[in-house]
Amino acid sequence: MDSTLFLKALVIGLSIAAPVGPIGLLCIQRTLAHGRGIGFLSGLGAALADAFYGAIGALGVSAVIASMVAARVPLALGGAAFLAWMGVQLLRAPVATEARQAADATTPLKATLSIFVLTLANPMTILSFVAVFASISTGHVAGHTLGASQAATMVLGVFLGSALWWLGLSTMVSSVRHKLSAKTMQSINRLSGAILLGFAVYQLSTLLPR
C-alpha cells in the first residue's frame, strides 16, 4: 500500500466529514437519543457513501459521473423530502421519561442506511470528489490513469478518515448524554427538527434558476 497516497486520502475523508451539516446534526442528535453505537453507525452510513463517491472519482467512471449529474434535480428533491420528513419526526417526538430513552425505534441497520441514502442524495458531492481525486492522482502518478491498487488505497483512506471523524464525534457527544434531562432532550429534538427543515428548504432553493 502506498502510504503517502493513503494519508492524503485519509485527510480528504476527515475534511469532507468534518463540516457541520445535516449529517453531523443527525449524528449528534442520534447519539444523544440512542447512544454512541447508533450515532457512530449513522456516521458510518455517510462514510460508506463517501467511499462510494470516492471510488467513482478515483476510477474516473465518466458514464456514472454523467448520470449522477444528470439526476441532480430528482436526487436533490428526494434528499430534501427525506430531510423534511426526519425534521417533522423530531418535532413530533414525544417527551421521554429519561434523556437516554429513544424517541423512536431506530435500529443499527436503519441508522446506517438512512444516512447512506441521504448522503447519496447530494449528487454535487461527486463533483467535489472528482476534482479532489483528479488533483491528487495527477500529482501522484504524473497524469497517468490510476491503477486498481491505487484507487483502492484512495477509497480506503477516504472511508477510514470519514469513519474516524464519526467515531470521535459520537464518542465525545455520548460523554454528556446521561447528564441531559428529558426536557433538555425534547428541546434538542425540536431544535434539530427545525434545523433539518431549514436544510431541506435550502436544498430546494439550490434548484431555483439563478
From TrEMBL:
Highest classification ranks of the organism: Bacteria, Pseudomonadati, Pseudomonadota, Betaproteobacteria, Burkholderiales
GO cellular component: plasma membrane
Cross-referenced Pfam families: LysE (PF01810)
Family annotation (InterPro entries): LeuE-type
TM region positions: 6-28, 40-65, 71-91, 112-136, 148-167, 188-208
Stated name of the protein: LysE family translocator
Record's subcellular location: Cell membrane
Top-level taxonomic group: Bacteria
Single GO molecular function: amino acid transmembrane transporter activity
Membrane topology label: Multi-pass membrane protein
Keywords associated with the record: Cell membrane, Membrane, Transmembrane, Transmembrane helix
